[in-house]
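sorry for the late reply, my laptop died twice this morning and i had to redo everyting from scratch. anyway the thing you sent over, i finally got around to it. pasting the sequence first so we're on the same page, its 198 residues, then the predicted structure underneath. double check i copied it right bc i was rushing
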Amino acid sequence: MGNNNVNRLVSTIVSICLISIGSTAVVSAKPVMQVNPLGAKLKVLGSPDRYAAIWNKSSSTAWVARHGLTSAQYQAEFDKYVAQGYRLVQVSGYGVNGQDRYAAIWDKSPSTAWVARHGLTSAQYQAEFDKYVAQGYRLVQVSGYGVNGQDRYAAIWDKSPSTAWVARHGLTSAQYQAEFDKYVAQGYHLINVSGYGK
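ok and here's the structure:
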């Protein structure tokens, strides 16, 4: 994901476990992010899911965000926005009452070829990862989340230029720390992390 996308609106990847940001108000029958010339306003349904987000004021390309989507709703929104020339720049999967839900951001920034997948088991994610990396894609964002005690993944790959990179998933805290220490010692810096529970 380019710096422009990161600077414009960054979903808090470090804690995709969706910590509470305060009380939730029922203000709409449909979850939607609206933007006006004076800034951004988040509309949230009264539900058990919680969100952590960052807004910033900057000029940007057209963008749209959705949250609280079931898998089918997310796929419908994905198809609609991609058909309108948007690209997915952020996806966060999470579980609510045993069901997967999604929050996502699309924008109209210029891009190279890209692909996205969601609702993947660990084995499915690894197969998609291997397939796309072999085709010259690189992983630009991954969201790990748990639904009914099972790991799930949503991810975005693109063909943007990149330096050397490494990705890991399904790590325990100790395994994550060991990988972190190993790659930092080799000169890598962390650009995306998703913490989650089963």
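The first strand starts at residue 9 and ends at 11.
thats about all i looked at so far, will dig more tmrw
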